[in-house]
């Protein structure tokens, strides 16, 4: 499908948000202080009449999002991710790179034992396999959204409280960070450092992309779900993650 594109000058001024955020450009940010406790974000209480609410009172969007902490050899960084089945989650390559200890926790603060991680060679994507079951996972959309479609992003900026931001798909552009990837989606839903790897959902709660960067004017960039599906179907698309101690 053909979509509108953002001006090249805007996307040329990309803000790099590395392992504590989005993007794959050095230098890495300062370690995230463990004492940071972000203010609670308004509007996260599920609607009382929602069919998606589980017995513990949390809705499907909250349950499927996970917080990722990458304890590396030199620093601590944070990111987000989301489950795609009971023992598999998706995040960004730069979120899990150079890890000495990869930690995953759920919406209710439960730690998930991590098994293995693999990163994609083409896109800023990673697969993490867990030993513990994940609480919930969404449906992956069959196709990419159209320009103007609603989008909701659920993640953990700064490794803190779960944040949900909303906006619309405003176009597509050639990926400015991974030249061989092709087109990526541009939305006006806000993301911050730590949002990397968040699921972007349509108005039916289906995943339509994965957050991996933001632009200088605070638009967010998504790996489209068509690319995610293609890579998940290709066993050769991912390889074991390189840790700070070596492969």
UniProtKB/TrEMBL annotation:
<dbReference type="InterPro" id="IPR001940">
    <property type="entry name" value="Peptidase_S1C"/>
</dbReference>
<dbReference type="InterPro" id="IPR009003">
    <property type="entry name" value="Peptidase_S1_PA"/>
</dbReference>
<protein>
    <submittedName>
        <fullName>Trypsin-like peptidase domain-containing protein</fullName>
    </submittedName>
</protein>
<dbReference type="Pfam" id="PF13365">
    <property type="entry name" value="Trypsin_2"/>
</dbReference>
């Amino acid at each position: 499908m053909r979509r509108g594109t953002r001006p090249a000058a805007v996307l040329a001024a990309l803000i790099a948000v590395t392992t504590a955020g989005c993007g794959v450009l050095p230098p890495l940010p300062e370690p995230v202080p463990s004492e940071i406790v972000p203010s609670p974000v308004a509007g996260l209480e599920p609607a009382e009449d929602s069919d998606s609410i589980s017995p513990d009172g949390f809705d499907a969007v909250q349950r499927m999002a996970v917080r990722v902490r990458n304890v590396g050899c030199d620093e601590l960084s944070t990111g987000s991710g989301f489950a795609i089945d009971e023992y598999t989650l998706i995040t960004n390559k730069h979120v899990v790179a150079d890890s000495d200890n990869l930690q995953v926790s759920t919406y209710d603060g439960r730690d998930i034992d991590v098994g293995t991680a693999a990163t994609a060679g083409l896109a800023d994507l990673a697969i993490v396999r867990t030993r513990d079951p994940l609480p919930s996972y969404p449906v992956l959309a069959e196709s990419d959204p159209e320009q103007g479609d609603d989008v909701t992003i659920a993640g953990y900026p700064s490794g803190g409280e779960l944040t949900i931001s909303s906006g619309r798909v405003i176009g597509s552009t050639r990926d400015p960070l991974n030249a061989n990837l092709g087109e990526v989606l541009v939305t006006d839903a806000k993301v911050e450092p730590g949002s990397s790897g968040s699921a972007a959902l349509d108005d039916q709660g289906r995943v339509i992309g994965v957050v991996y960067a933001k632009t200088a004017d605070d638009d967010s960039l998504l790996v489209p779900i068509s690319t995610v599906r293609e890579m998940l179907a290709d066993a050769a698309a991912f390889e074991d993650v390189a840790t700070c101690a070596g492969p």
